[in-house]
Amino acid sequence: MKLKYFDDTDTLYIEFRDSDIAESRDLDENTTLDLDSKGDVCAITFEHASQRTDVRHLALEGIAA
Hints:
Blueprint: E1 2-6, E2 11-15, E3 23-28, E4 31-35, E5 41-47, H1 49-52
Antiparallel strand pairs: 1-2, 2-5, 3-4, 4-5
C-alpha cells in the first residue's frame, strides 16, 4: 500500500494494490476510485485533500494478520 501527497495540487493518492487500472469511477467531483478488471479497488484519489482529510498528520498502525 502506498500513500502519495502532491502538495502542488493538494491531491492525496492512496494505492491499495499495484494493479492495472481498468476503470475509474467518480464518487463525487473530488474523489475518484480506481478499479481493476475484476472490479476490485486498486486506489482512491482525493482532490482538495488538505480540506477534506487530515493529510498533515499521518499515522501508521499495524494490524496483526
